[in-house]
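Quick start: what a row looks like.
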Amino acid sequence: MIALLLAILIAIETVRRLPLIASFRTIAALGRRSSALLAHRGASDWSKGRGARILSARLFGSSLRAGLLILLIAAPLAAAIVTDLLLGRRLGALTALTDWQSRLIILAATISYALVRHRLAKRLQPH
């Protein structure tokens, strides 16, 4: 259970440091831009097609980046589970995922950690 808790805390810190939300904002902005491009009446079909190809390539790149960031965030959890499997479930990561009492403890601990970390980060920022 401790290994899973540490993996979750590492994932929380990874989320705080990576620009995941910014990646999803970029995806949303590109989606709005492509919708506006296709709805534009004054543009020719050729220019709409060219713009759509360019925007779709950018959207693909942004989606790929966001997906890779999600994989990077999930890596500590996967590593804890795989290590637990390789060691014959001696770490207790899989047991903690299936036991509801352990899940409640982990939920309370991680939410508390995230809230305390958020409060400390706000207090330590210069005004």
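That is the whole record. The helical segments are 2-17, 20-39, 45-86, 93-98, 100-124. The chain has one domain: 2-124.
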